[in-house]
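As promised in the previous annual report, we have extended the structural survey to additional targets. Below is the entry for (apollo) hypothetical protein.
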Amino acid sequence: MASALPLDYLVWDLFCLNRHLRSLVRKILYEEIPPIDESKPLADQPPQKTAFDLYKSYSLPKEEIWQKRREEKMNRKVVFNLIKESTHQYSSIFSCYEEQARISRARRLSEMQRLARQAKEDAIQNKRAEKEKRKLELLKAGKLSDDEIVESSEEEDENEYFPPPGLLIPGFYAPPNDVAKVNGLAILFPKIVLEYVTPEPEFLPPHVLVLLDMTKRYNAIETLAKYKNAVIHMGIFKATSPYSAVHVAYGVKHFDSMKLSINLDDLKLAFMLSIKVDVPLLELMDLNPYHVSRDSEAGEDECAAMFPVNYGDEYAEFEDFD
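The corresponding structure token record, generated without further manual editing, is:
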């Protein structure tokens, strides 16, 4: 069996509950444009672009990337020197506070020296930038000498991969780890994921079938309102046994809205009830149910007979607890 990716099935369940999530995400990213607020001036209006067009960018040539790296390195060095000088100046000020006049003169002198050093460094940096610019021009023209290539290769790795210039880069959020990545794939591209992933089998908790007379339907709903998480399925059936049941409605509200003229004595309110915690079942026993499965094995068979796999896909069967 092929190895399966470690999917977070809680997110997978969320996707199954909201089947229109993919179309919603696509609409937000590729179609929706912010509306114009007439109460605000034009300068304060959001860009009239989709989110995809607003945040997309294009890959730069490797020469520009290298140039940006050098500039960032120079800026970091300048900032470090300024912080170092400022720290030295302030430490001198606090240690010699009583000699305020002398410190002021020293600060002015230090500032003048710093400006002189800064001007010297700027000149060096400008000279270096001109040199690098000349190297890039020679590199493009194919006239760069071997010595210059060795010197420049100390900072730039020719084997480093760069995408082709002008390549479209979507401005999407980058998931921080593998679990987040596969969750995003599972939500946005479920069909592709299913081709490579074998979902883990889902196991229902141990459960039983409980049938109650329709005259007790409101009391049953009130009783289980505190334990609605224990209700796996529910419905109203015309039945005398689990294996001869005919479905009528998905719940009490659904049944009341149908306004059927039918004998209530022939109907039963059925619950597929988890017994992982036995309190909900014990409370229903106070209502003297018509039928209760003898154990979880019998309950599995009886519930399978009354509640097929696709039961409730087309109707909100738990609206009685809302």
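The CA atoms of residues 85 and 114 lie 8 Å apart. Confidence is low (pLDDT under 50) at residues 1-18, 149-154. These points will be discussed at the next consortium meeting with the crystallography subgroup.
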